[in-house]
């Protein structure tokens, strides 16, 4: 990578089981609920997949094939390492690339899954790019960080104006998706506890491991400090924002 901050972010997230907040229980519940809408062996994608944590769940629960795309070679290497021993690894095709342009023809996916990644390119941009990749009546299940209430403290607003200035409310995200040609099938909030269990607690262990290296690396030290600031902010204000999963169907 040519960007020191991106390199530091990858270093911080390396070997962390998930690269963002999530819940295997919620993932399984959503996939089991909507599996009847999919073919017996669906063609699927996990876009912005990180180390492919969810890709393995897709392959396990739904069968079929999963194209797992992420821009980070180290994350894809983690996926490949797991795939060598995981019984579902053969069903996953790892790709280092742009999640907006995965290697598939139009109408090629029955299901697109994306957790916490759309914001990086802009949710509207992602939804526009992914729609033609879906088969007719294909499903898009993605999560996005959203405002949960109109009342917001100055501390929270300042943080997200810097890190995700385009963040929308749940209602605005739904309106945007419907305007772009999707039908909403379901909307589920990720429980606050899952942020700690799946992400912040494991992340803190990783940050402690990197403290010695960070004492000689100002960029890495800054990323570590910002990661801890983010966790502290969520501890104080998790009622104001959070991840929400949207289950959409292409019209």
Describe the model:
With 251 residues, the protein is of the alpha/beta class. The chain contains nine helices and seven strands, in the order ααβαβαββαβααβααβ. It has helices spanning 4-13, 24-34, 53-62, 73-83, 123-130, 154-163, 170-179, 192-214, 218-237, and strands at 43-47, 65-70, 92-96, 109-115, 134-147, 182-189, 241-250. A seven-stranded mixed sheet has the order 3-2-1-4-5-7-6, sandwiched between helices. α1 crosses α9 (218-237) and α8 (192-214) runs antiparallel to α9. The longest helix is centred in the last third of the chain and has 23 residues, at 192-214. The radius of gyration is 18 Å and the shape is globular. The model has no long low-confidence stretch (mean pLDDT 97).
Sum up the structure in keywords.
globular, 7 strands, alpha/beta, 251 residues
Topology:
Elements: H1 4-13, H2 24-34, E1 43-47, H3 53-62, E2 65-70, H4 73-83, E3 92-96, E4 109-115, H5 123-130, E5 134-147, H6 154-163, H7 170-179, E6 182-189, H8 192-214, H9 218-237, E7 241-250
Parallel strand pairs: 1-2, 1-4, 2-3, 4-5
Antiparallel strand pairs: 5-7, 6-7
What is the mean predicted local confidence, pLDDT?
A: 97
Overall form? globular
Strand runs, count? 7
Structure annotation, total helices: 9
SS content category: alpha/beta
How are the strands of the largest sheet arranged? 3-2-1-4-5-7-6
Share of residues in strands: 15-25%
Largest sheet, in brief, is:
7 strands, mixed
- Taken in chain order, the helices and strands follow as HHEHEHEEHEHHEHHE
Radius of gyration: 18 Å
Give the % helix.
40-55%
End-to-end separation: 38 Å
Give unreliable regions as ranges: none
